[in-house]
Amino acid sequence: MAANIDLDPVKGRTPIVFGETTLHGLTEAVAAPLERTDYKKWWMTLGISASLLGLLPISIAWLFWEGVGVWGNNNPVGWGWPIVNFVFWVGIGHAGTLISAVLYLFRQKWRTSINRSAEAMTIFAVMCALIFPGIHVGRVWAIYYVFPFPNQMDMWPNFRSPLLWDVFAVSTYFTISLVFWYIGMVPDLATMRDRSKTKVRKMVYGIFALGWRGSTRHWLHYERAYLILAAMATPLVLSVHSVVSFDFAVSQLPGWHTTIFPPYFVAGAIFSGFAMVLTLLIPARIIFDLQHIITIKVIENMCKIILLTGSLVGYAYGMEFFIAWYSGNEYESFAFVNRAFGDYSWAYWTMISCNVITPQFFWSARLRRNLWVVFILSIFVNIGMWFERFVIVVTSLSSDFLPSSWAYFTPTFWDVALFLGSFGLFFTMFTLFVRFIPFVALAEVKAVLPIADPHYIPEGDDHSEEAAHA
Amino acid sequence: MNETKQPEHFWKTHTQLNKELHRESIDTSAVTDGVSRRNFLGVMGASAALAGVGLSGCIRKPVEHIAPYAKRPEDLIPGKPVFYATAFALGTKVTRLLVESQDGRPTKIEGLPEGGKGGGADAWAQAEILNLYDPERSSHPGTFDDKGKKADLSWSDAYASLDGSMALSRKNQGKGLALVVDTVMSPTYRRTLEGLTKGQLSGAKLYVADPAYPHNRLKGAEIVAGRKSYTTLTLANADIVATFDSDCLHTDGDWSSNASGFAEGRSRLAADERMNRLYAVEPTMSLTGANADHRARVKASDVGNALQAVAFRLLAKGVGLTAGGPKVYDFKFPAATDAILNALVDDLAGNKGRSVVVVGERQPAWVHALGHYINEGLDANREIVTWRKDSGMTTVHQLPQLVTDLNAGAVDTVVCLGTNPAYVATGDLKFADAYKKAATRIHLGLHADETAVLSTLHIPVSHYLEAWGDVQSQDGVTTVAQPLIAPLFHTPSLLELAARLRDGKKHNGLQLVQGHLSRGRSSSFAAGKNTAWKKWLFDGKAAVRSTVGPATASNWPALTKAMPKNAKAGTGFELNFHMDSSVYDGRYAMNAWCQELPDPISKLTWDNAATISRTMAKTNELANGDMITISWEDRTLTMPVWVTPGTADDTISLPLGYGRKSMGEVAGEAGFNTYSLQKSAGGYNPWIGFGAQFKKEGSTYELASTQHHDSLTPYNDKEPGTGVGTNRRPLIRVADKTVFLAKPDFVNDDEVIKDPTKIRSLSGRPQEDETVYKSPQQWGMTIDLNTCLGCNACVLACNAENNVSMVGKAQVLNGREMHWLRMDRYFEGSASDDNPQMVVQPVGCMQCENAPCETVCPVAATTHSPDGLNDMAYNRCIGTRYCANNCPYKVRRFNYFNFNTDIHPLHQMQKNPDVTIRFRGVMEKCTYCVQRISEAKIDAKVRGNGLVPDIDAKDAKSKKIMTACQQACPSDSIVFGDINDPNSRVSKAKRSTRSYDLLGELNNKPRTSYLAKIRNPHPKLATQAEKKG
Questions:
Q1: CA proximity to B578, closest of B609, B552, B553, B548
Q2: Are B221 and B553 in contact (CB under 8 A)?
Q3: Cβ atoms < 10 Å from Cβ of A389
Q4: In chain A, what residues touch B727 (CB-CB under 8 Å)?
């Protein structure tokens, strides 16, 4: 497929957008999902997602009514699925900001077709993530104690606690991501406003378009703001999952108390985030007929990042074992041997197969371009990354220092229901997103078209559209 | 406790309640002056209970009237607990108690401190407080129809019915009257009962229905002493203790004093002191066997033979046993057992006068007699064994006799006085069928139990904390048992009812007790106005002439006659019945504290299981929880197995006391009734069964154990080994005495980081404690693993003191038990080992100086106090559970549910008002009994010099502190105090070279440290592993 695509005549590289490249054609293609209603598959997806979403309020209500005991958590295993899910969702929330901010700073122009949806995915994933620490505490009605605010008790939160750092790290990340996403969306919202045929639509898009008229001054401010936000978001990509990893690394528990955790968590987060982007976009680009914009080349690029981060994660797994042995620490060695050969070895080997073996398939260009393969492997990666968090959280807790306290953790129906409910929330949000917000950053894609960067081509006749199009 | 429901007939109407209050309560415990303090508060308690009943029905609150103190009752300062001495008997074991009363409600039972020791009430004695407030107690007399359905009777009708039946019996000169009693340790009650078989009732017979009644022990002594006698042990004087199927440190004999004496001999660790050595020969791992230096795994039927072999080898060694003794034979045993027996013989022979043989109640009488014979030869009767005439009933028949009499139609009236023969009768007697042959069946008891539902009349009786009584221990000390509260259900006491049986008149318990104890004293004494009487009550000891006299054993030819002619081991599987470590013989089955108390060996809660050895499990392909059906003669029982190291092969051990299906929500679901398998007819020893068979059912049953893994060497002993071994974790440090003497600081060899200066914080800053801990007194604790037996008394004490929630079997299965103090149990050796050694370790919060839980709490709900405690602020806690995750000792407990919704009004009365009831969603843990510390600190400021005196301090001006666990410990293994004071008992203990910190390498600086366990193996066995038995 890619072989049939002509190279960019100026740069000699694969073009970012295939086929139709008129500005208007792009606008039509991107705006179509927002303006047409006859997407059968979309309605199906929404139906399924919304049903799953229904589980969320039910399982939360039951949790609030009965107490944390509705889950499978027990005495050594104080944290179970909720924290696993929290780390899982925060991890997924990494790809968006990486794609939109870091790749932006590195001038990776292929990002433009996916950054909007990746960022949206980030926002929704972080929303899902934030549910869990909020509701997993024993006394939800007192959760506000974690915020530093002046109060009659004259009590501050404990700034030494990594959980508190989490509160700051994740909320900062969410705020910056949201602002970044929204700022990037303003020109496109203006486009939608201008295309609106109904009054309500016009008004709503109009409000969110912030009076964008596309003047040069607007563009100047916009570009500057976007750059600054990208610069602010970039360190957050690294910091937020580092801080999440501190929840574990700062503790004393063998299997948690590890200096490798921050980079290992960040690599894993990017790994899972990219996989989730693929899981979402491979069907979306087909349903909404955007294969020429979200090209196979973009998918290949993402596969390569998955290969890189997956290998980093695999390296980290090996290094953990090496250090556990090299430390000579009885409890540390045991924690890792126990992971691989103990009661939870099934979880460990699921994790290894999904996270270490799966990405290796992406060495093959043929497999990278086979959408079925990529789609299925991307799901495997996410399964693997969920299990990674499960292995870290549950196996370490279930067997630590004193064998007398060891116990096996078994999830309950409500553990599963809550997790599925969070998926319901995530997919519902995303499904709605693709129909109400241009899910390709139109303005940005237009800016990377050859047409936006006109050059004299010796072999060509002039700078006309036809030449670029040929 | 959230699983109890309110009995339907708690109170029917308010008018009824008021009537009863007026009619019954005033006179049952009237002390001296009109409306007494206890009476008044009993009424108060009742109205609180009533309020609860009303509230639960979602109706308008009933109108309540509270009466203020117009004049404050004497000695009562609101909010200040008052303590009363009393006593109670469990079987023949008497415990003198000190009961704490909070504003008129007894809330906690402790041992009566004697001679500077806590007194060590065992778990059962302490659990009695929950029995008092058991909402499932019978509150109302009634009659039961054929289907066991109760029809309530009014009190007057019930009395009329009772008096009528007895009048009839009196008319028949007591002929056909059977009185079923339990082990009687009360002199007044005994005299009353004996009176019931005289005079007008001379034809009546007494039968004993009490699994705790020591039939074999008494019979064994009778053989050689010529009369029913009882022996007590002074184990502190013994250097060599050899138990033969006797759990004398936990369930057999006078276990508390045995445990304390044993611990004393265990503590002789100096080079010039003789530490005792314990040998145990037993078929199933008892707590005594678990603490033995050498434990031989021998089938129950072989225990007597092992004792014969010991006698034989002693004679062969030239140790002169008394002349006139029986001819004994040697027996062949497996090499390991043989080696242990030889070492034992060697030790016994070399320590005449300082060694003793202890035979357990489960063994037949001749083994007891043989034990006495050996003890006589060993000169043990001089300092260790004390012989006394049995203080129990003189003529008492056994339950098989009652069944025979019933079946013969010789009995028409049965009165069960506080006994439950329908449950405890062995299965072969088919008691229920026989019982129904009596026309009049009267049951007097705390519960509408298995016997009550078969009876024509049931009358509830008072708990011992509600009634006057007296108790005489086997060593002859009499204690007046004072009531702590007016009867909650306006019930008469058993003593009062027994007196009523004789003459049909109402009696007053206090007058009965005073009348009996004051025989030969002045009339002013009898009226209770004498200061001597008050002193008796205060001291918990009455200066009355003991009815217990000395006895001597000398009739050795009788032993020869009693010995079996050709003893040999039984074939097939043996069934071993034994008292349960949690519910005893079943009388604590309705007690949630006991049900949830993990068995010291198997760690099972809420169930009993058939325990088998690992070899037997392997050969029969049985795993934990597999159901088996045991059949013996015409009796079958299907129950799960639990593989327990130390069990003899071809032996199934069956704890008694469970399977009380009709006994309400606590007992109903728990376990299997093993009495139904037992056999006792025709003089059969009910404890051991021969010729049983079993088959695997194929189904499984979930058993709730609080501890799943066995070993300190995880994965080294999984079968097959996973190969990647980890070494033994140095959590419990043990050495032989010789090693200890050669290297007193051997505990340091186990340190993970050998050089203590290398343990420091990352920041390199000096330790915080120098700057933060400003209080002059810093609390710390030591737990001596050398004397700790693992008896669980501390665990139960902690539950009682700190309002610890019981969570039920389902939640224990989920790993959510709430015990603040747990008893860790590990086996040493590999999984293939059938007779490993066992170690125990009580673990509560260590109160770390660098507490890892404190740094991770996001809301600072757990912080340090200036006196070094790791405090929990429940109302700040939001329940992230991060602290529990980061606690390396896993001592923090989380309220996964609201375990305290709808606390029954009666249970509310038990709660310690000084300790918060924890709500759902908060973390909790051991506080070092901070409420006791605070109380002592306040007292020190008010009365003393501002500093809380040490436990050893002479002439202290203010209150001393004992934590609840320390107070309960029979072996004084737990020491608590100020570690800033170099002369405090705890500081001295911490200076011991045996002292080590659990996981000290983590730099948590725990305030609790452990003193290493020392074993004292026989030199010949020290080097070789005598594991196979």
A1: B609
A2: yes
A3: 25
A4: 330
Are B860 and A68 in contact (CB < 8 Å)? no
Distances in Å between the Cα of B116 and the Cα atoms of B112, B113, B960 are: 10, 6, 12
CB atoms within 10 A of CB A330: 18
d(CA B365, CA B223): 8
Q: Among A68, A330, A341, whose Cβ lies nearest the Cβ of B727?
A: A330
Strand B688-700 and strand B626-632: the pairing is antiparallel
In contact, B196 and B415? CB cutoff 8 Å = no
Query: What ipTM did this prediction achieve?
Result: 0.90
Identify all chain A residues contacting B822, using CB atoms and an 8 Å cutoff.
404
User: A330 and B729: CB-CB below 8 Å?
Assistant: yes
Of A138, A333, A407, the CB nearest to B726: A333
Confidence at residue B933, expressed as pLDDT on a 0 to 100 scale:
94
* Under 8 Å between Cβ of B484 and B106: yes
Q: What is the pLDDT of residues A125-146, one digit of tens each?
A: 999 999 999 899 999 999 999 8
Chain B residues whose beta carbon lies within 8 Å of the beta carbon of residue A139: 877-879, 919-922
Token pair for B439: 């026309």
CB-CB contact of B965 with B842 (8 Å)? yes
Q: What is the mean pLDDT of residues B518-533?
A: 67
Query: CA B622, CA B645: separation in Å to the nearest integer?
Result: 14
Contact yes or no for B596/B576 (Cβ under 8 A)? no
Say which residue the tokens 């063998």 belong to. A254
State the first-to-last Cα distance of chain B, in angstroms, to the nearest integer: 43
Grouping H, G, I as helix, E, B as strand and the rest as coil, residue B385 is strand
3 state SS of B277: strand
Check residue B843 and report its DSSP letter: E
Does the pLDDT at position A428 exceed 50? Answer: yes
Yes or no, beta carbons of A251 and B709 under 8 Å apart: no
Rounded Cα distance, A454 and B511, in Å: 117
Q: Do A341 and B715 touch (CB under 8 A)?
A: yes
Is B499 in contact with B201 (CB distance < 8 Å)?
no
Rounded to an integer, what distance in angstroms lies between the CA atom of residue B282 and that of residue B293? 13
Residue of chain B whose Cα is closest to the Cα of A157: B859
* Interface-testing mutation among B602, B856, B922, with chain A (most A C-beta atoms within 10 A): B856
Please report the residues numbered 878 through 897 in chain B whose beta carbons come closer than 8 angstroms to any beta carbon of chain A.
Answer: 878-882, 884-886, 888-890, 893-897
